[in-house]
Design a protein that fits this description.
Elements (H helix, E strand, L loop, with lengths): L1 H11 L4 H11 L7 H25 L4 H22 L16 H9 L2 H17 L5 H28 L6 H32 L1
């Protein structure tokens, strides 16, 4: 279950369009106006986790889990490579609107490809593998959605505290590499537990 949290942290907290917008909001001193925006982001993730979690549990069972786990591990490693190679130049983020509200966060995250990328392996691979379904699925989805809302929120806070110094490409690149390493570790953990051990047994 720690792997679920580690994967979620790895994909939700890396720089993406929503997080970079949060960073820009913080740098521009609009932190208080961004609370609704962050809650909208979390709500969008809740929708994805519940819909994909309920559908995913029905799609994956028994021996299919080994194949899906192998594909999921490959996908997570691919995502880690993309994160490590991501452009770290934050010098020209789009200027944030003066007031970001709940609807802005909800719509932006529902239309953000990174949201689907983040939730699909969790809902269709990690939830079924951990036996998370029914009420526990709802509890996990709410918890992970709170983490998702915290992602742009943390960028807002960082932007507020650090200001222009956050635009250092070395800092962002180091963060990207840290998150990429975390994703690779999660992929290896899933591979050993859900591919290697079942095949060896």
């Amino acid at each position: 279950m720690l792997a679920i949290v580690a994967y979620a942290l790895g994909v939700m907290y890396t720089p993406g369009p929503v997080n970079l917008l949060g960073l820009n909001v913080g740098i521009n001193g609009q932190a208080k106006q961004s609370v609704g925006f962050c809650l909208g982001v979390g709500t969008a993730m809740l929708v994805y986790l519940l819909v994909l979690g309920w559908a995913g549990a029905a799609w994956i069972s028994g021996s299919a889990l080994i194949l899906v786990s192998a594909l999921g591990c490959s996908y997570i490693v691919y995502l880690a490579v993309k994160v490590a190679r991501a452009n770290a130049d934050l010098g020209e983020p789009d200027h944030a609107p003066r007031l970001l509200n709940f609807r802005d966060g909800l719509v932006m995250q529902l239309l953000n490809p990174k949201a689907i990328v983040a939730t699909l392996p969790i809902a269709t691979l990690q939830f079924p593998a951990a036996g998370i379904q029914g009420v526990s699925l709802v509890v996990w989805a709410v918890g992970l959605s709170a983490m998702a809302a915290g992602a742009p929120g943390s960028y807002v806070v960082i932007g507020s505290l650090v200001g222009d110094r956050i635009k250092s490409t070395r800092v962002v690149k180091g963060f990207n590499w840290l998150m990429a390493g975390l994703l690779v570790a999660v992929a290896m953990s899933i591979g050993v537990e859900h591919v290697w051990l079942p095949l060896a047994g």
